[in-house]
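User: I'm designing a mutation panel for Epoxyqueuosine reductase and want to avoid disrupting the core. Could you give me a predicted structure to guide residue selection? Please restate the sequence first so the numbering is unambiguous.

Assistant: Good idea. Sequence first, for numbering, then the predicted structure tokens:
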Amino acid sequence: MNSNAGKYSQLIKSKAIKFGFQDCGISKADFLEEDAHHLETWLKNNFHGEMKYMENYFDKRLDPRLLVEGSRSVISLSYNYFPKEKIPTLENFKISKYAYAEDYHEVIKEILREMVAELQDEIGDFGFRVFVDSAPVLERSWARKSGIGWVGKNANLITKQSGSFYFLAEIICDLELIPDHETTDHCGTCTKCMDACPTEAIISDKIIDGSKCISYATIELKNEIPEYFRNKMEDWMFGCDICQDVCPWNRFSSPNLQSRFTPNEALKNFKKGEWKELTQELFSEIFRKSPVKRTKFAGLKRNIEFLERFSGK
């Protein structure tokens, strides 16, 4: 082990806190052996629905050394997005909390690059790549291995201190660092997330049929929403937070301190009638910097029209 491994590991963790990350853990860049079988089975069962990109780069998903040449460590980080205020849902369609504000991909990548630049000033040059819900990286697996949290029954990463309303990010680098240990699972016998899911997308502990998930139907799905979702959408027009909202650990969630994650004012004032009149121009104006732009105007319009026809009440 490099004599600087411990010093660098502590430096990275202190920088992570300085740059606003909620937590930081380290894993050795290695083959994710226990995840290989789970991923293969999940794909064979077609639980990914139309997310065909999940079939790509199978080996790279499981081994970061194939993704980033010379990599020796995976630094996992979490960033709180729990909002200061919730967007009213009375007479309004619902949007996942992570999409209330600016696109997290851009916000967190900028922070990561600044953090790495500062690290290189102190450590010296090192090879790295940063990832924020991008490229074939099994984020929750690495975060679990690094001890940030455990994977809950709803397949979200959960922590005792702050629940699950946070983004995950990674720095895969060629630094030799001290790996952390996994934490223990604290879901116990609780099945609140499984019981609350209106589409029964949570098949069993940690196994999600993505093709039945409301988030999948409103974001990933490019075709028409299947009849299966009729009267089950509960007014969600982009994403879904049900399994997180009912999780007992999320009672510990506290508002984020990132100004760029302040809820979009336009979203707070909209009512269902106004969403039904949404135009391409207005969509582009409201969601210019938002993750909602991923579904495009046609996708959001499709979601709204589906909810209009089937109220979910």
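For picking mutation sites, this is relevant: Residues 192-241+263-309 form one domain. The chain has a mean pLDDT of 95.
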